Amino acid sequence: MQIYDKVILDASNFFYRVAAFYLKNLSDQDAALYIKNNTIFNNYRQTVLNLANQTMGTLYILFDPLRSDGQKSERQKLLETYKGTRVKNDAISELKIDTLQKLYSHFILNESKKVKVLHSLEYEADDYAEKLTEEGKCLLITSDEDFTRYLVKDRVEMLIQGVSIKDDGVFTFDDFVKKHGFKPSITSVTFWKVFWGDKSDNIPGIFLDSRTKILRSANDLAKELVKEMGEENVNYFEEKRNFFSGTGRFAKLKELLELSNTSKSYKKLLDLADENFQIIESRLPRESDIPIEKFITKVDVTVKSIKKSKFTLNGVKK
Q1: The model's pTM
Q2: pLDDT, tens digit, for every residue of 219-258?
Q3: What is the pLDDT of residues 8-45, one digit of tens each?
């Protein structure tokens, strides 16, 4: 039994891991039948129950918006190409949507003290993680690097491979430092992604944008600033303000960026930075007074028969 207060599962990201695990030893014919019959739902449901039984704490399933109206997410409204480069297998993509909807329905209709479901039409999975990881020993189950901003030494870890909790699949604070050369924090990882982008989400880094010119000295300085912010564990919103005003630790960086750009291209750089910050940062920051409990979905049974009953999804009747 693993000693975690919270196991926090990114439902959409984990779907691909579960699918790969059960498809890997199947022939093409059997795999096609597996997909057609949506057998993965039962596998995914059982995998979640197994994970819940492996820990002393609560398992939280985080869902991205489950929409059937074709509307864009809040982040896609900011950047149309957000997550647009991800390789999509139509059969698997359709299977994912159907599986997640069934998984969602199953766990809210079969309430458990060990498993909690979080969902709304406004927020994505990694938005909830910021508040959930604020305290307690936590395990994030995802391979999405956005979640690395929540790693805390000896307290918050990530299960980046496998479908059960095993040490060889756990990615720690120290593992991140070894891989990237700086300490992860909400501030340092967000700035890192703003500066150099995120190919998996198709987010263009401001230092890689063809419309701007970046001196090597500016790029090197930015790396040092990200490292500093990780070491000092500084306030994200304060550092963001300092970046746009070119004050504090960012005064020299502003000078170097203005030196190599026209006023027009420098403005484009700041506009792109602003867009990146909005896409990358959590929409439910720890400073927000919105309680995370608001998004724990519960069934509101209005008649005795489950078959005829209606339930409320954060105020929206289904």
Answers
A1: 0.87
A2: 999 999 999 999 998 999 999 999 999 999 999 999 999 9
A3: 999 999 999 999 898 888 888 887 787 777 788 999 99
